[in-house]
Amino acid sequence: MDLLSHDDQGRDDQGHYAQGELVSVLTTQPIDRLLDYRAPEGGCAEGAVVSVPLGPRQVLGVVWGPGEGNYDLSRIRPVTRVLDAAPMRPEMREFLIRAGEYTLTPLSAMLRLATRAPGLSDPPSMQKVYRLGEQEPERMTDARRRVLAVLEEYGGLSFTLKELSEMAGVTSSVVKGLVQHGAVREEQSPRDTPYPRMDTDRGGKPLTDSQAEAAARLSSGYAERRYATTLLRGVTGSGKTEVYLEAVAACLSAGRQALVLLPEIALSEQFLVRVEQRFGAKPVEWHSGVTMTERRRAWKMVGRGEAQLVIGARSALFLPFSDLGLIVVDEEHDTSYKQEDGALYNARDMSVLRASIAGARVVLASATPSLESWANADAGKYDRVDLDARFGAAVLPAMHSIDMRGERMEPGRWISPSLAAAVQGRIARGEQSLLFLNRRGYAPITLCRACGEQIGCEHCDARMVEHRFLKRLVCHQCGESKPMPEACPSCQVEGKLAPIGPGVERMAEEVAGAFPDAKTAVLSSDLFGSARALKQAIADIATGDIDIVIGTQLVAKGHNFPRLTLVGVIDSDLGLQGSDLRAAERTFQLMRQVAGRAGRAETPGEALLQTHQPEHPVIRAILTGDEEAFWAAEADARRAAGMPPYGRLAAVILSATDPQSAFRAGQDLARNAGPLHSVGAQVFGPAAAPIARVRGRHRVRMLVKAERGVALQTAMAKWVGQLRPDRDLRVAVDIDPQSFY
Length: 741
Ligand code: ADP
Ligand code: ZN
Description:
Elements: E1 16-17, E2 22-27, E3 35-38, E4 44-45, E5 49-54, E6 57-66, E7 81-82, H1 90-103, H2 107-114, E8 126-132, H3 142-153, H4 161-168, H5 172-180, E9 184-190, H6 209-218, E10 228-234, H7 240-253, E11 257-261, H8 269-279, E12 284-286, H9 292-304, E13 309-312, E14 324-330, H10 347-358, E15 361-366, H11 371-378, E16 383-387, E17 398-403, H12 417-428, E18 432-436, E19 445-448, E20 464-467, E21 472-475, E22 481-483, E23 497-500, H13 504-514, E24 520-523, H14 531-543, E25 548-551, E26 564-569, H15 583-595, E27 606-611, H16 617-624, H17 627-641, E28 647-656, H18 659-671, H19 674-677, E29 682-694, E30 697-707, H20 712-720, E31 730-735
Parallel strand pairs: 10-15, 10-16, 11-13, 11-14, 12-13, 14-15, 17-27, 18-25, 18-26, 24-25, 26-27
Antiparallel strand pairs: 1-4, 2-3, 2-6, 5-6, 5-7, 8-9, 19-23, 20-21, 21-22, 28-30, 28-31, 29-30
Helix pairs in contact: 1-2, 1-10, 3-4, 6-7, 15-16
Bound molecules: adenosine-5'-diphosphate and zinc ion.
Zinc ion is lined by residues 457, 459-460, 462, 475, 477-478, 480.
């Protein structure tokens, strides 16, 4: 990453503007300049979050600096109100500016990312809170004692009814009873209250020598505000989480805040429990499943330094931390860190940027790091810490391939006799098996046997996928769905539609036939109405008596299934098809990660990979587990081709309802590539995107390739800036693209 061109520290000297003074305000509206206002009654600080009039509306903004004064002074309106929020700190503003410059995202859009909390402009509302009262209750019960003990432990702090009853493990009526006796006081207080303090003195689990050494390397520099990024590589189950929680403790002890980013945050129940055990209080959660009021509270308290630890999805990186000292990016290779919509940023890379500005540390944790991070560690830009053994008795699963060319397969069946025998053995021993297939739905293709038609989406160049549980065909591109038809939409012949290929639902059918007495569960993101239901299903698998789990990549992420001892990969070749730059890397990561689900407790695990090409270098690397060799080979190939991380890529995606206009715009750009040529960059395209139509819009891609170290963004901005905007045409620029669809 070339994010860290200069290494300046955020300034802390925020100015103040007296009433009537001119200030310039950055708003969240898509206007490409700052707007002048007058400071309101009482004045306002630099960085103040304000509400300002814009035409007939009130919009959110931040006081960015002194006014420009180059506008009719008599017409400049005053700031309406300074909102009840901590002023945005200089280092946050610098982060937004530089992240915007890096991703070529307008600053107003960056500010939108940074103010994604509802009701910021609402006046503070009130709620009931509970604190220790003066009276003793007449009668003491265990439950009552627990409530009072919690309140005493936290000194003068107050809690909401829900927090207090949860922490004490009692029903809310116990608390209410204590209120009647005067033992607990009920008060009105602003709704957005500070979060409970984390107790860093509790200590974690006693660490092994290598864990302790790793923890020590991550636990210094917080008070000194020293920037550093460390790649923490360790096989699944080696104790990475245990180790980085020590870093969190060190950071919090230094009085600074910490942020842990997780890829599947809605499913991180097990993780939250661990944090609570370690620090005696719940951390702040930040993801799409968090209620609106809680989001607002989190946003405000993070800004005031009254929330110490945030566990979040990638957007948590844009919270207004008052003093962020540590960012952990768990499963740093995960593709969900790249936002593929709107501002196209990669939260992993932006974490490094934010930390470098804030004088904070970054820990990138993974069992299978991205080639980018591996190369950065190799080049000495990042520090690297390895944990090589699994904790305790758990050992890495033995991995073998099943050569599908030698298996007797019946048509419409995907579980080979060899894999079936292994599963049968696990059932007999009362152990759990996971059958992994990274395909949602019943069948990826629905074919008409009369005319050969494959049913596609009307809005996208994509096949519709049959989802039998829903009895519908679903487009995985745009989400459009329709009832499963009786007759072929093309030739109208009835009863000839046939499913081709497997999805997890179809696997469930095959499993039911092959293992009629086994208890099975299917884990696929679309099968659960809510994150809560999915969490429950995962918990059931971990603790219940499920024999066979059938899952998509959802199961690959960090869950701990102690009884699981066999992982069978239905189609190991799936990810190797296609021309994606990262196909090999992704397959390697996913297969190693899925295999890592097996044998996490005392019983050793085994992973069996069904493949038609056991001699493929990637499959061989997965089986031998020789990661360094795999990365070195992959790095050599990328270096030779000038591909990331040794060269740079940027993509432009043009889309329009009229296919011609998207192409014309692309050809215009191709003809006027001077700004790119002047930095030695090459342009490829325009070409129809692999999925050429999504949601009715035709898509054309262009790819720019440059050497490392050139000012690519400046050149890109100049180049794309030549396009004359028109109503129908949309232009997206993707710096460091991860996907090429
Ligand atoms: P990773 O994050 O590398 O997958 P975890 O930190 O989740 O590994 O550790 C795997 C399991 O081993 C967890 O259940 C964890 O509680 C346990 N564990 C790891 N280190 C220790 C330790 N030093 N003492 C006790 N349990 C440990
Ligand atoms: Zn579609």
